[in-house]
Amino acid sequence: MKRKSNPAAAQIERRARYELGLRGLKKALGALLLAALIGLLVWAARIQGTSAELLLSLSVWGVMLGSIIALGAIGLSLVYGVLRFANFAHGDLMTVGAYAAFAIMPLLPQGAPLAPFSFGWEFLVALLLAMPIAGLVAFGADRVLYKPLRRRRSSSVILAMASLGAAFFVRSIIYLAWGADFEFYYQRPRPALELPLGVRVRPDQFFILGLALLLIFLIYLLLERTKMGKAMRATADNPELARVTGINTERVILWTWVIGGALAGAGGVMLALDSSLRPEMGWSFLLPMFAAVILGSIGNPYGALVGGLIIGVVIQVSAAFLNPAYGPGVAFLIMIIILLVRPQGIFGKPGG
Amino acid sequence: MSPNNTVSKLASWQVGKNLLKVEKVTGGYGDMEVLHEVSIEVKEGEIVSIIGPNGAGKSTLMKMIFGLLRPWQGHISFNGREITGLEPDRIVRLGLCYVPQIENVFPSLTVQENLEMGAFILDGDITDRLERVFALFPLLKERRKQRVGKMSGGERQMVAMGRALMLDPKLLLLDEPSAGLAPKLVEMIFEKILEINKSGVALLIVEQNAKKSLELAHRGYVLANGQNRFEGTGKELLNNPDVGRLYLGG
Fold first, then answer.
1. So what's the ipTM on this one?
2. Which partner from A56, A333, B106, B197 sits 20 to 30 angstroms from B146, CA to CA?
């Protein structure tokens, strides 16, 4: 070799190259694992005699369910990033949104269904109002509960426990006001469309998917293009540095709650439109949401979107050979596998 | 060295007025007292360097000046205004900015977004300020769209300093700006510090690289065990045999 290289620099370079290769290998391994999991699911479904058509339908429904999970998970991830605690009341914010729309709808003039959907204008208006209501409930909880704890520099465990209490509190109020029965926005029959390849989807489900994607796109614009959105990402990166930089973190926290709550509220209304309202609906959705957040790297809203879609599809496809009641269990299983194999999630850096 | 001695020697170039004044500050974490009646001063346009062994309380002092820790006793004033216990987002408005030692960038944001966050408290156009920072660190302009998490230590340090310069501070606090950098980059960072100072910004620097930082500083303080031990011009401290033996490794 002609060039006299510094042995230390050469070693650093070798090490960097080695780490780069290792990272590539790990990425490939992760993708392989995911593919194997999906392959396993499909194989299990086929063995049970599930038709390819049904599998395809289940996947489509999975994407739709996943988009609802993603709406909740994005907010959950943002709240975790900015406030550094697991908000166990996030599922119940979905319930708040669903019941808020349910309470508003009878107050509005009832229109004819907007064909081909099963709902009329009053539903859309109620949905638009339910979102800020859920956002305000989230913000209100912060003012009476989390902010005083923050002031006292409580640990994140205390904050998480407080959110668990808030979850029970909110649910109890819903039980008191509406009872434990299932409720529906509409009692109309909802025929499914026959699509090519034997896929059966209700028009409402297309609406849900479209609206979820629209909201996710708006969140993307907010986070990437607005000053407040960038400040939210900065605070999620490093709250202490955000304060040092001069970012008004209390204002960032306010917007995080309002946006996270509104997204959860919209998700709740969509979930209720697809099936029914019940006081436990959001609570039982918490596990898939956490699984999505952990899968997509905690604190990363885009990761939460991808995680939500994956969890949604896996839950639905597993319903081909498992009792659908085990859906949350499947989400839990994925969460455990991720925590064991890649605790930083798909989009996280090791140790980060 | 008696303090009286130093004062007379300093008088010749004490032209700028007092910018930062830390008076007999005592404090620490929990029950642990880290700083005992520490006093320092920075005047307009000065580079002041704080050196001392590990655990001397240098970083703690920085945090206390910047409102991240509340002193138990003593006063801190900036530009004639008491800032003891003021929140960081109020302090930056007064023209005092801070670059922490570690985790001093937002890794998931791009270079430009990091700089924009530095000017968060400003409403309106910040293009001029961005261009000024890019003029100081041309590399950052090239990489403005890159996420900082993927950049090297030296590049991150530039982003961190650029971020803190976005508000046009009167005084910049730098905590270990050269820590963990390759020798070539250390040189570059010190050059940039001089360049920043020439544009009229006063700097208060905490450094492990004591010799180098005293060479470049107008004045310096030696902290040990949370107390003032020596103070004087950079040259005086470099030539002081006690300082040399105890803290400069020679």
1. 0.87
2. B197
